[in-house]
């Protein structure tokens, strides 16, 4: 096993981790970015490459994959070492205040650590109906990788939050018909998105709850029961997309040799994004502090906050660039 030494180790290669790595490069900190998936982008790239994202400043309606591509281009301007397909097995704080980072492939040392794991491992909330498991990956989906796979189909989207609405609006231009099924009359999405949905050709079936699946060779029929009523409907479609949210956990963190303070399963951080352990910072959806908003946009602000704070701790005499315009970056 090889051993190398870094100023900063960023664990997690989603949008927050990628931007933190870029910011380390801007400040010429020796950094490594470790991601367990074989590619950068985290959940955004793995689950929602064609979903449109509206909360990133200056990039309205950018797709998940476009956002990750932009972040990759940005990271190339001030590159750091990247280790993909590598899971961090343990982080140990040594007596001298540095950290030993261990994976199955190698051991490295780091003066500081930034945890950007989001909510950790994630699994979709499954559709609890007989026969759903047999349809999974064929006519029943929990993720939409490429919308063109649904071209010309009749598609039922189950769910009532922002993601379900986004999926329905994303599929509408390519699908033959899109039906959004929700157990309430009101949707949980942002007002603007809900208004856009109601003005679209998407068929809204509310308040209905799926009760039964009947499969045929080339279609699936969903038995629907109207809430607080005996009324029932039948809807035959080619594909079903279920978006009831995800369950997630950061079980990997509990195996590390760090006793990190947490609140409601989220890492507690201060105003500099430092955790209860000096030298360990955390950013993104997996952290909590007063006023925390779980948005990509918020994580993009947390990354430079953490990097700037740890850089001042590591190199108090080093002059850090205050504004990006003073960093003299040459665009490739």
TrEMBL record:
FAD binds at residues 35, 43, 48, 88, 122, 285, 326. Its EC number is 1.18.1.2. Keywords: FAD, Flavoprotein, NADP, Oxidoreductase. It catalyses: 2 reduced [2Fe-2S]-[ferredoxin] + NADP(+) + H(+) = 2 oxidized [2Fe-2S]-[ferredoxin] + NADPH. SUPFAM superfamilies: FAD/NAD(P)-binding domain. Its cofactor is FAD. Gene3D superfamilies: FAD/NAD(P)-binding domain. Residues 6-300 form the FAD/NAD(P)-binding domain. Binds 1 FAD per subunit. Signal peptide: none annotated. InterPro entries: FAD/NAD-bd_sf (IPR036188), FAD/NAD-binding_dom (IPR023753), Fd--NADP_Rdtase_type_2 (IPR022890), Ferredoxin-NADP_redctase_2 (IPR050097). It holds the Pfam family Pyr_redox_2. One of its GO terms (molecular function) is NADP binding. Belongs to the ferredoxin--NADP reductase type 2 family. Homodimer. This is Ferredoxin--NADP reductase. It comes from Limosilactobacillus pontis.
């Amino acid at each position: 096993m090889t051993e190398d030494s870094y100023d900063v180790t960023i664990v997690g290669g989603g949008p927050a981790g990628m931007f933190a790595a870029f910011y380390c490069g801007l400040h010429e900190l020796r950094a490594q970015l470790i991601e367990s998936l074989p590619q950068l982008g985290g959940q955004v790239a793995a689950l929602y490459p064609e979903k449109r994202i509206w909360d990133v400043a200056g990039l309205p309606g950018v797709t998940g994959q476009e956002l990750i591509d932009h972040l990759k281009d940005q990271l190339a301007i001030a590159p750091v070492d990247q280790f993909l397909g590598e899971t961090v097995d343990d982080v140990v704080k040594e007596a001298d205040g540095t950290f030993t980072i261990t994976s199955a492939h190698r051991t490295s040392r780091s003066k500081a650590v930034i945890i950007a794991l989001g909510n950790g491992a994630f699994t979709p909330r499954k559709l609890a109906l007989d026969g759903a498991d047999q349809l999974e990956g064929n006519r029943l989906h929990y993720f939409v990788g490429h919308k063109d796979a649904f071209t010309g189909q009749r598609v039922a989207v189950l769910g009532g939050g922002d993601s379900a609405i986004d999926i329905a609006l994303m599929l509408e231009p390519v699908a033959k018909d899109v039906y959004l099924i929700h157990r309430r009359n009101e949707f949980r999405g942002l007002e603007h998105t809900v208004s856009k949905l109601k003005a679209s050709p998407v068929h809204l079936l509310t308040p209905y709850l799926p009760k039964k699946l009947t499969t045929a060779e080339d279609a699936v029929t969903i038995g629907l029961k109207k809430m607080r009523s005996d009324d029932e409907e039948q809807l035959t479609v080619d594909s079903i997309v279920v978006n009831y949210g995800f369950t997630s956990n950061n079980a990997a963190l509990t195996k590390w040799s760090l006793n990190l303070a947490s609140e409601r399963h989220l890492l507690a951080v201060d105003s500099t994004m430092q955790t209860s352990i000096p030298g360990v910072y955390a950013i993104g959806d997996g952290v909590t502090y007063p006023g925390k908003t779980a948005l990509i946009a918020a994580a993009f602000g947390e990354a430079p906050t953490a990097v700037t704070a740890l850089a001042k701790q590591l190199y108090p005499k080093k002059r850090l660039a205050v504004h990006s315009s003073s960093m003299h970056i040459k665009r490739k």
